[in-house]
Amino acid sequence: TFYTPREIVTFMVKESLLQFLRNETNVTPEALKKFIYNMHLEDLSKSEIRLIDEKLENIKVLDPAVGSGAFPVEMLNILVSLRKKLDVRVGKNINEIELKKQFIRNNLYGVDIDSGAIEIAKLRLWLALRACNKIKFTFHPVLLISLALVKWCNSIVGLHHDNVY
Asked: How far apart are CA 19 and CA 157, in angstroms?
């Protein structure tokens, strides 16, 4: 078992988001880097902020070897921080818990050959949601995480539906 240090995971997440936004927008790379690494919005126009917010809202992220879930959990945390910063700037008021639930349900995907790792990744996503401390579970938390597309399979040879749970 190998665990990637958090600093490296954070770097991978930020660089992935930087490349994604460079591909999906016409915003200057310098302005994007300032935003992703320092949450600096001063170089962005309102229309660029709205565009970035829309792209981040609809992003799809796959970790083909999810392991214990370090990458999707860090991606979740950074996406929520970035979206909160953008939303305040354009006058939206999106709740952190709702953002996390949305990203877990609709945007984060992961597979792994080790079914035990899948269960750990699901638990870590649940804990990331629970970490808000303001949340009172009026829904069954296992249901939420079961909706997260973290699946057991071998990403190298493909998905066999009889092996997915």
From this structure: 27
Asked whether 20 and 12 are in contact (CB, 8 A), the reply is no
DSSP H helical ranges for the chain: 6-24, 29-38, 46-57, 70-89, 96-106, 115-130, 141-147
pLDDT tens digits in sequence order for the chain, 165 residues long: 567 899 999 999 999 999 999 999 999 999 999 999 999 999 999 999 999 999 999 999 999 888 889 999 999 999 999 999 998 776 777 888 889 989 998 999 888 888 888 888 888 888 888 777 555 555 555 544 554 555 666 667 655 555 444
Distance CA 66, CA 46 (A): 35
Between the two ends of the chain, the Cα-to-Cα distance in Å is 23
The answer to whether 46 touches 105, Cβ cutoff 8 Å, is no
Angle at 103 between CA 110 and CA 121, to 5 degrees: 35
Residue 82 carries which side chain, given as an amino acid letter? Answer: L
CB 14 within 8 A of CB 37: yes
